[in-house]
Amino acid sequence: MVKPSNNSPQQKKGLHPRNPHRARYDFPALMKSTPALVPFVKKNPFGDLSVDFSNPDAVKTLNKALLHHFYHVEFWDIPKGYLCPPIPGRADYLHYLADLLADTADGEIPQGKKVKGLDIGMGANCVYPMVGHRVYGWQFVGADIDPVSVKSATLLVDANVSLKGGIQCRLQKDADNIFTGMINADERFDFTMCNPPFHASMEDATKGSERKVRNLAANAKKKGSEKFKVQPFEKKAGNTPHQKTKPDLNFGGQNAELWCPGGEAAFIKRMIEQSATFKTQCLWFTTMVSKKENLPSINQALKAVKAKDIRTIEMAQGQKITRVVAWTFLNKEARDEWCGAWKG
């Protein structure tokens, strides 16, 4: 188990105090642990080492280096076109979850295999379960509706000795269900987590991707780092001047990872409604909420299912603010009894 760090020089704004990625990337150390990163690292005009964050191969290789260096994950890869998530933000969610569990257990973070989490939509990258298991020793079930994602995640777990026995990967065969089929009758989870699809359609997802690429270029120019090579969408034979194909993005993503009918709000509402069926089998249900304007309807849905406690946790990375909404159906007495199992 990797011990979480508390102190880092030149800390990045907003990241959790235990997040080891608060410091600027130590590229010499990362290149030493992952030589494949070397070709992607260049000096910017200020003499600082960096990578081109608009280059998908550079971002994926940086992820490999971060997972290897900080979490001792020896092998990590994803199929082409699948989501390549930013490791610092993924780690932040897990550290805030640890705080939530600690707050429920009189201030002590529960660690080890007695703590079990369910990651809804683990993706082909399996990052949440990997980091959570390596930092806190928690057991995980990763769920996904995409067979390729489940196969990829299973291969990652099997390929890393440090992950074996700590992560199970399950295929959700019914896209209408979130928890049914993933939480067995005799199972209890200390928490669930989810990074839901944010967009309501592929068109919205593509527009969001375009904005992200433009923002990457603008931020690079503003900070004086190397000029990003932001390519226009490729025009293929048969396209009209107004038809553009999907851009080759640094973070990728399949349909189920990026969008669903109704977008983030509809997905989370469905999750809330279905969570009530498993109210005694989970201590805390949680989800990321990207859009602040969705919070009122989410809170209304939680009140409708009579959640006993509702919490909104803000997370920041630079200027970007995201939120985790957590809810439980257990009263204080039931929560105290639940937490007693961690010490028994």
From TrEMBL:
Its main location: cytoplasm. It is found in: Cytoplasm. Its EC number is 2.1.1.181. It is an enzyme of class 2 (transferase). Belongs to the methyltransferase superfamily. METTL16/RlmF family. Residues 1-11 have a biased composition (Polar residues). It catalyses: adenosine(1618) in 23S rRNA + S-adenosyl-L-methionine = N(6)-methyladenosine(1618) in 23S rRNA + S-adenosyl-L-homocysteine + H(+). The keyword tRNA processing does not apply. Residues 1-21 are annotated as: Disordered. InterPro entries: METTL16/RlmF, rRNA_lsu_MeTfrase_F, SAM-dependent_MTases_sf. The gene is rlmF. It comes from the Bacteria. It holds the Pfam family Methyltransf_10. This is Ribosomal RNA large subunit methyltransferase F.
